[in-house]
């Protein structure tokens, strides 16, 4: 009986892979995405390109909770920012290569997420969101007060890009991008494995009907905590790379507005799609960079207006709407073929 909730959970849009059931389309998308990631710093300023892929992983990590578990977290800045600080401190004080520092930051984010997740998942809906926000603000306050370690309002400055003595990576943003990209791609692959594993199917079942999942013997709170910790770990990977990329960790990385920004990216691209987080991060960062480089001051006003328009015109987000129409067209074709076969 317990197996049935994994394989026969009510199918929703988020349950269907973004490419439908055609593996050829899936492989084409993966190839296009990989080529785009490799080519990005040739067309975009490399530090901005690194921000795009780091924030894309951040959005994907949040989507594991929001789109696949049904939990809206407004506190993920705590894991993004705390990992950035730990990564920066280890890289600065111990001279560790940045992949080691980033991994340490991700582990710290997961450790931090364990008690927060354990206490937060006992609530749902807006109450869960507010509890995570409260914990995140506590972490922000601690970082603000502990200025001797974090730098307080001045932030953590002079974070090095130590990479086994390879000068090109340590001094050139272009080469650093390619050295750090495997960390981001590994995190994205991990998110894909989580979503498409039996564990991910249980998360979807909990999202769709937690009472039924509990009645079938699944420890709902336990699965939610594990999903919360895994999401925090992936967020930590992204936050650590972001810190190394900038060579600086600002206190704003722990602020609630950072959590709101990544929620915006996820919704903009499409909840429960994974690819939507990538597209949402790309659109948001590129728009903000374009407006900033043109000297425009009201960046938040424009991005907020774009978000409202997308929500009104694309109910499922940009990628979610494209995917939905593609799947609907395939379904209509299959139905027509089935009807034709029946008549014959």
Strand arrangement across the biggest beta sheet: 1-2
**N-to-C terminal Cα separation, in Å?**
40 Å
- Strand segment count: 2
From the alpha-carbon coordinates, what is the Rg to the nearest angstrom? 21 Å
Unreliable stretches: 1-20
Number of domains: 2
Annotated CATH architecture of the largest domain: Orthogonal Bundle
- What assembly state would you assign to the polypeptide chains in this entry? single chain
**CATH level-1 class of the largest domain:** Mainly Alpha
- H/E element sequence: HHHHHHHEHHHHHEHHHH
Kindly state the mean pLDDT as a whole number?
86
Sheet of most strands? 2 strands, antiparallel
Q: Tell me the β content.
A: under 5%
Fold-level CATH name of the largest domain: ABC transporter involved in vitamin B12 uptake, BtuC
Pfam family, one: BPD_transp_2
Protein name: Branched-chain amino acid ABC transporter permease
Membrane topology: Multi-pass membrane protein
Keywords: Cell membrane, Membrane, Transmembrane, Transmembrane helix
